[in-house]
Amino acid sequence: MMGDDPAMNLLHPLPDDLSEEVFTELLRGDALRIERIVSDGHASPEGFWYDQEQDEWVLLLEGQASIAFADGRQVDLSRGDALNLPAHTRHRVTFTSRPAIWLAVFYSSRSSKRCRY
């Protein structure tokens, strides 16, 4: 987790070493995990697909990114865009800008309700 200070800025400071994506756990509960992910031109390895047990909601706080799905769809994201990925939605990151900063919320849809805003 990021420090003990109750206030934090998700955009600053960024890690010095971005040779690999940096995943920082911000909060964890029984059926919830929130992470900041900092990408810097990273993409999923060729042929790799995420197939996660939990649902994931991502918000791109800064930068641009592209997500490809196993069914052939692709979604391009820019700053402020959010995407909900139900559990077992096979997907991969095909592009991230330098940098791209994500907020990722992992949750169980069995105990949640989707809201429209």
- The proportion of strand residues reads over 45%
- Tell me the distance between the termini: 29 Å
* Count of helix runs: 0
CATH level 4 superfamily of the domain at 46-109: Jelly Rolls
Overall outline: globular
**Biggest sheet record:** 5 strands, antiparallel
- Per DSSP E runs of 2 or more residues, the count of β-strands stands at 8
Cross-sheet strand order for the largest sheet: 1-2-8-3-6
The CATH topology of the domain at 46-109 is given as Jelly Rolls
Give Rg in angstroms.
14 Å
The oligomeric state of the chains shown is single chain
Q: If classified by CATH, what would the architecture of the domain at 46-109 be?
A: Sandwich
- The helical percent reads under 10%
Can you tell me the residue ranges where pLDDT is under 50 for at least 5 consecutive residues? none
Summary tags:
117 residues, mainly beta, Jelly Rolls, five-stranded antiparallel sheet, three-stranded antiparallel sheet, 45% strand
List the helices and strands and how they pair.
Layout: E1 22-29, E2 32-39, E3 55-62, E4 64-69, E5 74-78, E6 82-85, E7 91-96, E8 100-107
Antiparallel strand pairs: 1-2, 2-8, 3-6, 3-8, 4-5, 4-7
Fold and architecture overview:
The protein is an all-beta fold and 117 residues long. The chain has a domain at 46-109: Jelly Rolls (Sandwich), CATH 2.60.120. The protein contains no helices and 8 strands. It has strands at residues 22-29, 32-39, 55-62, 64-69, 74-78, 82-85, 91-96, 100-107. It has a 5-stranded antiparallel β-sheet, with no helix packed on it. Strands 5-4-7 form a 3-stranded antiparallel β-sheet, with no helix packed on it.
